[in-house]
Specification:
binds L-homoserine, 14 helices, about 450 residues, alpha/beta, 17 strands, 11-stranded mixed β-sheet, 6-stranded parallel β-sheet, binds NADP nicotinamide-adenine-dinucleotide phosphate
Length: about 450
């Protein structure tokens, strides 16, 4: 056991999460000390704007704009990087490692873009890089995947990885509220990223899916090549139609592995999830991750995926693990238990599934026949059709579901459908999630 009696913590970024971590360390100081045998003391934090009013007030000695002075401070043992962004966060993380400091982060964008480099640097400098808060906020999914389920390989990992979009979809679905109205509420609750497009366009969920895919399969999937869609095109009408199909529309990340060729598909998109899946019933700001392991079967974790306290809870959990490494009470866990480079990305032709399609069309004879022909040209077979008249227009909403097809054929069919005469708006297309889909079907 080390002689250290106090572990000093420096925090880069004193916003929603940074202040939450300070509060939890201060409020739980004595119980943490009794568990760990050392005290965990937050000492300094860095921000951009010193004049901003903050929920947790620090003295002028404790708050600085000089981020580098924190990572270079010889009295600080562990850094919490809670500022977000990529370039400066990367630079400061690598500098902290070089100074022999362990780092805890919630920064999924940074890990997605530079995980390989950062993990290697941490290993080289013999320090810990802990990132539980980077995926699914307060849910301990990283530890579960890396440590608890080490006896498994994973044919399917899927779930809701973005709390803000789930909060918006839930309120739209349950209250018939408008997208803009609910987005305003999400902002005031501190759920939304500074760059809102990260939440609304599926990019934040994609960052998290990349991290989970790496932990499950040992391969970094380039985000540029991933199919990523957000929630902006989901209407109250779609949410209602999904209910009639006994599904809910959720923004999900899906990671599937085909063990016959070790091809892995990773994607983020809105999908109709059958109501008997726990993920379909995971509402509000909650995230849910369903992991199917070869030994354990399916395990589902749900909980708060965003917000101050849940996210800070994961950061504090990581700090405790790091302290146990410092004091010699626990060895650092290896990042991966799988053989890296065994898997490679699946192609769009391999990724199979059924689709939900909504078209706004002129209400005239032959319209449905044209649509059916556009689909059958790509060998896409229709499973169900329903039509409703639009109010105040001589138009109809045509809602179709398809039998299983592949993503490539569906993309070709969509190119044709959107150019058909009488199709009045860009078609809306969502996947229908099948938890029992084989191979790479999504
Ligand atoms: P936030 O409220 O916007 O706080 C960011 C903090 O970083 C602010 O204090 C800001 O300073 C500071 N900062 C930003 N750029 C800086 C710079 N160049 N130099 C010095 N300080 C700088 O963000 P957050 O919600 O706490 O998120 C922090 C991280 O946690 C992000 O990586 C985010 O993706 C991740 N995360 C957040 C949540 C959540 O629910 N909020 C959940 C999971 C993960 P000022 O205060 O002066 O502007
Ligand atoms: N904006 C993110 C979300 C924060 O809504 O899930 C948690 O990563």
């Amino acid at each position: 056991m080390s002689e250290k009696k106090v572990i000093r913590i420096g925090i880069l970024g004193f916003g929603t999460v940074g202040q939450g971590v300070w509060k939890q360390l201060t409020e739980n100081a004595s119980s943490l000390e009794s568990i760990l045998g050392v005290s965990l003391k937050p000492v300094r934090a860095a921000v951009q704007d010193l004049s901003k009013a903050r929920e947790v007030e620090l003295t002028t000695d404790q708050l600085t704009t000089d981020t580098q002075s924190i990572v270079d401070d010889p009295d600080i043992d562990v850094i919490c990087e809670l500022m977000g962004g990529v370039d400066l966060a990367r630079e400061l993380t690598l500098r902290a490692f070089a100074n022999g400091k362990h780092v805890v982060t919630a920064n999924k964008a940074l890990i997605c873009d530079h995980g390989q480099e950062i993990f290697e640097a941490a290993e080289k400098e013999n320090v810990r890089y802990a990132f539980e808060a980077s995926v699914a906020g307060g849910i301990p999914i990283i530890k579960v995947l890396r440590e608890c389920l080490v006896a498994n390989e994973f044919p399917l990992v899927y779930g809701i990885l973005n709390g803000t979009s789930n909060y918006i979809l839930t309120r739209m679905e349950q209250e018939g509220a408008s997208f803009d109205e609910v987005l305003d509420d999400a902002r005031s609750l501190g759920y939304v990223e500074a760059d809102e497009a990260l939440d609304l366009d599926g990019v934040d969920a994609a960052h998290k899916a990349v991290i989970l895919a790496y932990l499950a399969h040992g391969v970094w999937f380039p985000i540029e090549n991933m199919p990523i869609e957000g929630i902006r095109r989901i209407s109250n009408e779609d949410l209602k139609a999904a209910r009639e199909l006994n599904c809910k529309i959720k923004l999900i990340g899906v990671i599937r592995r085909n063990f016959s060729n070790n091809h892995v598909s990773v994607g983020v998109h809105p999908a109709l999830v059958p109501m008997d899946e726990i993920i379909a019933r995971t509402d509000g700001v909650y995230n849910g991750v369903s992991i199917t392991g070869t030994a354990v079967g399916t395990t589902v974790l749900t909980g708060r995926g965003a917000g101050q306290d849940p996210t800070a809870s994961s950061v504090v959990g990581d700090l405790v693990d790091i302290v146990k490494t410092i004091t010699g009470d626990a060895p650092p866990p290896k990042l991966l238990h799988v053989t890296p480079d065994q898997c490679s990305p699946a192609t769009a032709q391999e990724v199979k599934g059924s689709f939900y399609l909504r078209l706004t069309v002129d209400d005239r004879p032959g319209q449905l026949a044209q649509v059916a022909e556009g689909l059958s040209d790509q060998e896409v077979s229709i499973a169900t059709v329903s039509q409703a008249l639009k109010e105040c227009r001589n138009a109809a909403s045509l809602i179709l579901t398809t039998h299983e097809t592949n993503e490539h054929s569906m993309a070709l069919a969509m190119e044709k459908l959107e150019k058909l005469p009488g199709v009045l708006e860009a078609p809306v297309l969502f996947r229908m999630f099948d938890p029992n889909g084989k191979d790479n079907s999504q």
